[in-house]
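This part of the workshop introduces the protein records we will be handling. An example says more than a description, so a record of this kind follows:
>
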Amino acid sequence: MTEAAPRPTLEAVAALAGVSRATVSRVVNGGNGVREPLVERVRRAVEELGYVPNQAARSLVTKRHDAVAVVIAEPETRVFADPFFALQLRGISKELTAHDNQLVLLLTEGRDDHTRVARYLAGGHVDGALVFSLHLDDPLPGLIQGAGIPTVFGGRPGWSDGTRDVVYVDSDNRQGAREAVRHLAGLGRTRIAHLTGPLDQTSAADRLQGFRDVMGDAGTPLVVESDFTPGGGERAMRELLDRRPDVDAVFAANDLMASGALRVLRERGRRVPEDVAVVGFDDMLPVAEQTDPPLTTVRQDIEEMGRIMARLLLRGPDRRAGDDARDEAPSGVVLPTTLVRRASA
């Protein structure tokens, strides 16, 4: 077995470039004060030798780790089964990769994991955190903020007391829900039901509020709480049909629940959309285009939400706005939604 060649050192780069070790260190670590011709010589030497900076040593100099934690407050069985998380992680990963940052994924199976996550974040392993899928009683926000690292949250922070500057990215869930229900009403449907997500999450609560904005108190008997999963959609749809067999339209709080509802309607012999029109929320193409019939749904740009979360975090202290309006910009970025019409409604 041949021995691996030794890794090129900072000293080797300095010798090849004909500069001091300190000059190489400044160039490699992004420091200022080096004349451009010297910068080019160092870069050519780095490329020729295949020099890769030692991350631990580099962190001591720059006080940065070029790594960002992505904290998802859900168990791994949920994260890896729901395409929503894959889309958001893809957006985050693309943005971090473009800025040469690593993604560190942290999941919470239960409350015991919260302390572990907070301890890791406070330990100086990452430069910041992106956190999403929080629940209203979740201790994670306080623990993470106690860790003292920059943080951007995915979703409106319903847990915030308004006294701290919380940076977040969300979709206009309430307006998207209004548009979905108005569409169903415009089709002449009068007994419109809503299958909610878990109401301890602000996205589900906002979509329920949008439903109520259109339906008022008349819609209350037609609301069934569920959990953002296909199985939850099935259970909620069965409960709804047992309670109100005359329902003629359903707005499900996400596409996965809508897919479960469609299966139950088919089992019960209800035609879609002739007997019951169905609208979902998300427009996750692997789900919405594969249902039978294809799903009318409210589109939110999940991947772009992930990109913006990462972009805000990497922008640092002035992440809330552009150069001309940093002091006046709100902490929240809320993206618009769009109704996508297909065959189910």
In short: The CA atoms of residues 241 and 247 lie 7 Å apart. DSSP finds 14 helices and twelve strands in the chain. The chain has a mean pLDDT of 86.
